[in-house]
Amino acid sequence: MITDLIRKNILQLKPYSAARDEFKGTAQVFLDANENPYDTAYNRYPDPLQVKLKESIAHLKGVKALEIFLGNGSDEAIDLLIRAFCEPNQDTILITEPTYGMYSVCAGVNSVAVVSAPLTPDFEIDLPLVLSSITFTTKIIFLCSPNNPSGNLLDKGKIEHIIKHFHGLVVIDEAYIDFANDLGFAPSLSQYSNLVILQTLSKAWGLAGLRLGMCFASEELIQVLTKIKYPYNINTVTQELTYASLMNTEKKDAWIAEILTEREKLQQALLSIKSVIKVYPSDANFLLVKMVNAKSTYHNLMKKGIVVRDRSSITQCEDCLRITIGTPNENQTLIEALKNL
Ligand SMILES: *Cc1c(COP(=O)(O)O)cnc(C)c1O
Questions:
Q1: Which of 47, 68, 107, 168 has the most crowded CB, counting CB atoms within 10 A?
Q2: Measuring CA to CA, which residue among 64, 22, 67, 19 is closest to residue 44?
Q3: Atom 7 in ligand 1: which residue has the minimum CA distance?
Q4: Which atom of ligand 1 is nearest to the CA of 208?
Q5: How far, in Å, CA of 246 to CA of 242, rounded?
Q6: For 218-238, what is each residue's pLDDT tens digit?
Q7: What's the CA-to-centroid distance between 312 and ligand 1, angstroms?
Q8: Given the CA of residue 100, which atom of ligand 1 is nearest to it?
Q9: 71 lines ligand 1 (CB under 6 A)
Q10: Ligand 1 within 6 A of CB of 100
């Protein structure tokens, strides 16, 4: 049982019960939450369980509403998963570097040690290394697919092997899955009780400023995250605007198509530039690019008002820049600048 892995104090915890949690019917007069009664559009607390928004996301993603946790960005789910499962100064998480930095930051905040089983030089899972790095303290394995900062989808067969053979949680961060020619693991959710999937509205959906992260997992696990979250973690504006934006699938799909076309063009254009050594294959909305000298290119671009991400100090990413795919104009500006450096 996945609940056997949860920290004892979390299992025993009685959650804060918000006024709007306790009352479930319909009413005319709300005198239960000490709100200001005068209508400002935002004088009422938001729905703590985000019922309407979750139903819409469930429909869109083909999962049950009870299998969804919504967070203030995916980062909230990463933090809560570590807090729910990892005993501080005792349990550990496993990551496959180079990868997204928040897993280590959230672990560090919670006094949970991080073990790394680095990806191979072509950014694939080193399966024997991952399996041999698992110990009795390993509670969560974080896999990012498509991976940030390398951009590639990780091998599905290897991920499945890890899910089947590891008794703790396997968290697959699919922040960039909308840009990949792959459905990811959401369709397999019901097959595995230890599988957790993270997605977000921050990338393909163009809503980074609203902060809405999605976590898909078994109902039992979602109940635990829901129990320990802040009661009103998703504000009214975010709930309303994201609900409305989810109707815009056509617009989102058009953006993705445009970004994929631009990714192809930018990749070709970069290869024609002298200071570019290699452009890694990408299933995401960015490219990892190996330069002759990433640091100096980074600073020179900055002087021209162009900001890219310097990843040169990261494991396996020596002299690499991570470049987000912009509009056709922005990408052209970048290429011109690189040509003139
Ligand atoms: C951008 C990103 C996220 C962050 O998502 P938010 O929902 O904006 O917090 C999560 N994981 C990875 C790998 C990312 O690159």
A1: 107
A2: 19
A3: 73
A4: 8
A5: 6
A6: 999 999 999 999 999 999 999
A7: 20
A8: 13
A9: no
A10: yes
Give the chain's largest Cα–Cα span. 70
What is the value of pTM for the model shown? 0.97
* Amino acid at position 135, single letter: T
Residue type, 159: I
Whole-number pLDDT of residue 149: 98
Indicate left, alpha or beta for 312 from its phi (over 0: left) and psi (-120 to 50: alpha): alpha
Q: How many CA atoms lie within 13 A of 51 on its CB side?
A: 4
Residues of the chain scoring pLDDT < 50: none
Q: What is the number of the ligand 1 atom nearest to the C-alpha of 213?
A: 7
3-state secondary structure 261-304: HHHHHHHHHHHCCCCEEEECCCCCCEEEEEECCHHHHHHHHHHC
Give tens-digit pLDDT for 130-147: 999 999 999 999 999 999
The alpha carbon of 100 and the centre of ligand 1 are apart by a number of angstroms equal to 8
